[in-house]
Design brief:
By secondary structure, the chain is of the alpha+beta class. The chain has 2 domains: 22-54 and 168-280 and 298-320 and 397-563, Up-down Bundle (Outer membrane efflux proteins (OEP)), CATH 1.20.1600; 85-117 and 121-156 and 339-380. It contains 14 helices and 14 strands. The strands form 5 sheets. Strands 2-5-6-7-9-10 form a 6-stranded antiparallel β-sheet. Strand 5 (102-116) and strand 6 (122-136) form a beta hairpin. It starts with a helix and ends in a 10-residue tail after the last strand.
């Protein structure tokens, strides 16, 4: 007898598992594929369209930065020219003679190399050589001359601290780091969306099972009551109530199966860049809905959010960029005071018989016997400065506006984290409450069924207890899904999503270009310890080495910090 009972139990379990698989296949319309949350995240990081699109932005920003360094590229030029001139003969009234005509030909070549150095020094290397031949007053001549030298110009006021090239480079560097944070923000958003969609799919799947059980209960009750009506132990009204219960259960199940299919599609869309290929795949979540206890500390969450939120780090970069522009326009208010110096060598060859040659001139230049040099200073003072002054004022106003926007974002982040912590705490409490409600509902239905079996309860009362149990089971699953989604949303608000799921950005092999080198390659899931991951703190140190305390109010005991970029202008420049 015991063996028969075990066999029947095993058979019932097998039938239940088969029914669950069939319901999933019907909802998804294709072959089932078991996937954990980590599997889904890895799939999304490799194929999610939003991540793929955002991944190009750091590449574009890096190309812009490299183009900005082109301002230091030297420029080489070379030219050659032939000149011919003939002057007609003329009469000299004082000597009563006719001056013969004059003609000459000239071959001239020039070359130069000029450029700019990072501290503003302008250099220009130049070389010229020319050969002239012809006749003057009937006497043939040939001469050659040339020079080689360098001219240096160093600004001391305007364009000394920062010039156009340095402005473009610093802004491009900041935009590159901002684009990396934009990629990190998109990855966090994508991972959070995948986690929420995964939990919604798990909820819909388990809720379908709950409604299937409710339908089975309703059908069992209907069968039992039909038998009682046949023997005259129950009125026909009870059967009609049972049939109504079955119909309602079927309607609820159909609606939830439709929601299950919709949640399947939402998750698939986040995981793939080829929806047609995934359309007939039914995802089976293998990561269960659990409620791990967690201690929530609002101050720690605030501190982490202030340190890790990518949108805040982007806002800091925007403040830095505007500070660089204020510094640039402030430097443009000064007059131009430049130190100028030049040094070079001359050479010449004049011969009336055999003619001057290039070789003789080059030999003299190489010997260094005929030197020339000059040095001095040049001051240029604009009389009006209306344009630069107003540009500086406008840049300073924009900086103050950007700084206020940063503070507003910081305050919004504190509020968002506060709300996320409250949501996580309340959903965890809901899990405990709904779990107890489900246990009590099961016990109440069991007691009511026993009472009904001895004829002391009506069909209507049993159906009410069945509805209560179904609702309690759905509410418990809903609370579990809400709690897991609340944890995912809290991690997103803290900027800790990558750390929570052990996601690291792979650097390009052999590249040591700093934090920006980590942004161009697919992020991967790793089982490494969280301490080995590169966090936003390391990137933050590259951007904002200084900070000043800001009063944020509220119940916190320790002060939060608003980082101030090193290029920020003084309050009253």
């Amino acid at each position: 007898m015991k063996s028969l009972s075990l066999f029947l139990l095993a058979f019932a379990i097998a039938l239940a598992g088969n029914a669950q698989t069939n319901s999933m296949t019907e909802a998804g319309g294709g072959a089932a594929r078991a996937m954990s949350l980590e599997d889904c995240i890895q799939q999304a990081l490799a194929h999610n369209y939003d991540v793929q699109i955002q991944r190009y932005n750091p590449q574009l920003a890096r190309y812009v930065l490299e183009a900005a360094y082109g301002g230091y590229d030297p420029v080489f030029n070379i030219s050659g020219q032939h000149n011919f001139d003939m002057a007609p003969s003329s009469y000299n009234p004082y000597s009563t003679t006719v001056t013969p005509n004059t003609k000459y030909d000239e071959n001239a070549f020039t070359s130069g190399l000029n450029g700019l150095l990072p501290w503003g020094l302008q250099y220009k290397f130049s070389g010229t050589i020319a050969q002239t031949y012809g006749s003057q007053n009937g006497v043939p001549f040939t001469d050659s001359r040339g020079s080689s030298g360098v001219t240096l110009t160093q600004p001391l006021l305007k364009n000394f601290w920062i010039d156009d090239t340095r402005l473009n480079i610093r802004v491009a560097q900041s935009r590159l780091q901002s684009s990396e944070q934009g990629l990190r923000l998109q990855i966090i958003s994508a991972v959070t969306a995948v986690a929420n969609a995964y939990y919604e799919l798990a909820f819909a799947l388990q809720n379908v099972r709950v409604l299937e059980e409710a339908l089975d209960l309703a059908r069992t009750q209907l069968d039992q009551d039909k038998k009682r009506v046949q023997v005259g132990a129950l009125g026909a009204l009870s059967v009609q109530q049972d049939e109504s219960q079955v119909a309602q259960a079927q309607a609820g199940l159909i609606t939830e199966q439709s929601m299950l299919a919709t949640n399947q599609n939402v998750l698939k869309n986040l995981l793939t860049d080829n929806y047609v290929q995934w359309h007939h795949v039914t995802i089976q979540p293998v990561t269960g809905l659990e409620a791990p206890p967690r201690v929530f500390n609002l101050e720690d969450s605030w501190s982490e959010g202030m340190a890790e939120r990518p949108d805040l780090l982007q806002a800091l970069q925007l403040v830095k960029q505007q500070g660089i522009e204020v510094k640039y326009y402030r430097n443009q208010l000064f007059p131009e005071l430049d130190l100028i110096g030049s040094y070079g060598l001359n050479g010449a060859s004049v011969k009336s018989d055999t003619g001057g040659q290039f070789d003789d001139t080059l030999d003299q230049i190489g010997a260094g016997q005929n030197q020339y040099y000059s040095y001095g200073a040049q001051l240029t003072v604009p009389l009006g400065r209306v344009g630069p002054r107003n540009q500086f004022k406008a840049a300073r106003v924009v900086f103050q506006q950007t700084l206020l926007q940063l503070k507003q974002l910081q305050q919004n982040i504190l509020m968002e984290i506060d709300n996320a912590v409250i949501d996580a705490q309340s959903t965890y409490q809901s899990v405990q409450a709904t779990r107890q409600a489900r246990v009590y509902a099961e016990a109440a239905l069991d007691a009511e069924q026993k009472t009904y079996a001895v004829g002391k309860a009506s069909t209507f009362e049993v159906l009410q207890y069945q509805n209560t149990l179904t609702a309690a089971r759905s509410q418990e699953i809903r609370a579990l899904a809400d709690y897991n989604e609340a944890l995912a949303n809290l991690a997103q608000q803290e900027g800790a999503t990558l750390e929570q799921y052990n996601i690291h950005l792979e650097a390009e092999p052999g590249e040591t270009g700093g934090p920006q080198s980590n942004a161009l390659f697919p992020p991967v899931l790793s089982r490494a310890s969280p301490g080995s991951a590169q966090t936003g703190e390391a990137q933050r140190d590259n951007v904002h080495p200084e900070a000043e305390p800001v009063e944020t109010g509220g119940p916190q005991r320790k002060s939060l910090f608003l980082p101030v970029p090193p290029d920020a202008p003084p309050q009253n420049p």
